[in-house]
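Researcher: We plan to redesign the surface later, but first we want a full-length starting point. Tokens attached.
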């Protein structure tokens, strides 16, 4: 049960700006003054990647019962991987344009992490493509 004094503090009057700033400092404190809301951009990127992973999982489950399941799943997997690489490149570009962190080394480290994510995604996609090319076309269950 909520007491009336707690209710009035929660809903009755607005929170003073300084107090609000202290309450959300853990979210925006690491960003430079010109990009205090960069955390929203990070959450958007994470949401997009999560949706791509969920889509891949749904496609895997729904194509499990069909005769052409492997070919369909491979095609969708390549499409999703391509979109994931594009998302990484777009957000890397946004990061390089905004340089949202307060210190130069933070921006450099984040850029290196984007580069690593891009390179590993590209490498994983190319290795899977190479293994599917080397696989004999008739190799399946007898």
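Model: Full-length starting sequence:
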């Amino acid at each position: 049960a909520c007491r009336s004094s707690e209710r009035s503090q929660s809903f009755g009057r607005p929170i003073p700006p300084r107090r609000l700033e202290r309450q959300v400092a853990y979210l925006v404190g690491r960003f430079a003054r010109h990009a205090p809301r960069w955390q929203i951009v990070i959450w958007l990127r994470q949401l997009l990647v999560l949706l791509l992973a969920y889509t891949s999982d749904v496609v895997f489950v729904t194509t499990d019962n069909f005769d052409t399941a492997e070919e369909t799943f491979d095609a969708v997997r390549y499409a999703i991987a391509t979109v994931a690489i594009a998302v990484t490149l777009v957000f890397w570009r946004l990061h390089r344009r905004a340089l949202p962190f307060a210190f130069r080394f933070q921006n450099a480290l984040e850029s290196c992490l984007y580069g690593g994510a891009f390179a590993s995604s590209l490498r994983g996609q190319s290795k899977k493509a190479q293994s599917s090319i080397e696989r004999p076309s008739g190799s399946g269950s007898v």
